[in-house]
Design brief:
Layout (H helix, E strand, L loop, with lengths): L2 E5 L11 E8 L2 E8 L4 E9 L8 H10 L9 E6 L4 E5 L8 H6 L8 E8 L4 E8 H8 L6 E4 L1 H12 L6 E6 L3 E8 L2 E9 L3 H14 L7 E6 L6 H6 L5 E4 L7 E2 L5 H6 L1 H4 L6
Parallel strand pairs: 2-5, 4-15, 5-9, 10-13, 13-14
Antiparallel strand pairs: 1-4, 2-3, 3-4, 6-8, 7-8, 10-11, 11-12
Length: 280
């Protein structure tokens, strides 16, 4: 099982009650980081990736949670972020907690053995309604019973509104995960476009993005901010650079810092995970 770990030498497993835990999960990976809230600094990142394009089962999540020496510890605060394209944004004015299942099913088919969750987003004022496998959720909460669960759009939109509100023109953000991507566009502090797309390859992403820009009459001289599974000299940036003049990599922003062991590649890859303290 591929495994990545970076940590600061000040990390102390006997002091976890002073730390905050943030966990990101998708069908193919589980990644977590530890935040030292006293020093406002991230001091650990550890990731597990499923091999050969496989997906993790609930029992595999449980195994990782059980065997990892940090994931079973007690923390000052713990947050679980679910990365999935299956979600629906509902404006605060229209939201009724009794109808969250109905909101979700307007756009998506509900999977068997799934629970529908919702969490509030400050900007825009809305709820994101999303689906989580019950067996998977049980595997996580059995080790961290007080964990708060949010959808990945919660920190992503929080970041985009914080950065984009100072920009007069359109602010465009492309976040890429393994099997889907989010395209979000802000204009004059208002949410102009927000959608998720299934994608099979780089050309699929380019096709959808260029069509959205064309339909919204946004010219190709604009800047696109990138995050997630995007490499500086990878296929996606190479293909996009033929059509978009200015590509920039997003970086986490907020009242926190990073140990010197973290690098730019890690920061834009896990931008949503690192931005969780701003919105939870």
């Amino acid at each position: 099982m591929p495994f990545q770990e970076i940590f600061d030498e000040t990390l102390d497993i006997n002091s976890t009650e002073k730390y905050e835990l943030a966990v990101q999960v998708s069908p193919s990976n589980i990644v977590f980081c530890i935040f030292d809230s006293i020093r406002n600094k991230y001091i650990l990142l550890r990731s597990f990736e499923a091999e050969d394009d496989n997906c993790y089962t609930a029992s595999k999540y449980d195994e990782i949670m059980r065997n990892d020496n940090f994931l079973s510890c007690n923390y000052k605060k713990a947050t679980l972020m679910v990365a999935t394209e299956k979600s629906t944004l509902v404006p605060v004015q229209l939201y009724d907690p009794e109808k969250k299942d109905e909101y979700f099913c307007l756009n998506h088919l509900r999977e068997n053995n799934a629970v529908i969750l919702a969490n509030k987003i400050a900007a825009p004022e809305a709820y994101t309604v999303f689906e989580v496998s019950k067996s998977f959720l049980d595997a996580i909460t059995s080790r961290q019973p007080n964990i708060t669960t949010v959808h990945h759009l919660t920190p992503l939109l929080s970041h985009i509104f914080r950065i984009g509100r100072s920009i007069r023109d359109d602010y465009i953000h492309l976040h890429v995960e393994k099997d889907f991507f989010n395209l979000i566009i802000l204009n004059s502090k208002d949410l102009k476009f927000c959608n998720s797309f299934n994608c099979g390859n780089t050309n699929d992403i380019l096709y959808y993005v260029m069509n959205v820009l064309k339909s919204l009459e946004i010219n190709q001289e604009t800047t696109i901010h990138l995050s997630g599974l995007v490499e500086k000299y990878g296929d996606l940036t190479s293909v996009f650079s033929e059509y978009i003049r200015d590509l920039k990599f997003g970086q986490p922003s907020g009242n926190f810092s990073f140990s010197y062991v973290f690098n730019e590649r890690v920061l834009h890859r896990y931008i949503n995970l690192f931005n969780l303290p701003n919105c939870v």
